[in-house]
Amino acid sequence: MTTSTFDQTQSNAPTIGELLQTASLYLHIPFCHTRCHYCDFNTYAGMLPLREPYVRALLTEIALAGEMARHADETRRRSRTT
User: Fold this and answer.
1) Helix extents (H) in 1-82
2) CA angle centred on 24, ends 48 and 50, rounded to 5°
C-alpha cells in the first residue's frame, strides 16, 4: 500500500498549537495615485492626503490591540496561579 501525496502533506502539516504560536497580518493601505484595472481591493484613487491620517489611525488601533492582548495574557496568567 502506498501513501498518497495528501497523506504525506498532512503528516508534515503544523499542529493547531504550532499555528497559534505564529501570526500573519496583511495591512492594506487603500490610497493609490491611480486605480489599476486589475485591482480588486477597496481602493481610493486621487485621495492621497487621506493616507497619513489613515496610517496614524491604523497605528493607534495596532497599539490598542497590543495592549488588550497583553492585558488578556496577564489575566490568564493570574487565573492559573490562583
Assistant:
1) 5-12, 16-20, 51-81
2) 10
Report DSSP state, residue 31. E
Beta-ladder partners of 32: 45
Q: What is the pLDDT along the chain (82 residues), one digit of tens a residue?
A: 555 555 555 567 777 777 677 777 788 899 999 888 888 888 999 999 999 999 999 999 989 988 888 877 677 666 665 5
The x, y and z cell numbers of residue 37, run together, are 484595472
Residues 6+ apart with CB under 8 A from 29: 51, 54, 55, 58
Amino acid at 56: R
On whether the pTM is more than 0.70, the answer is: no
Handedness of CA 15, 18, 23, 24 (dihedral sign): negative
Cell of 2: 502506498
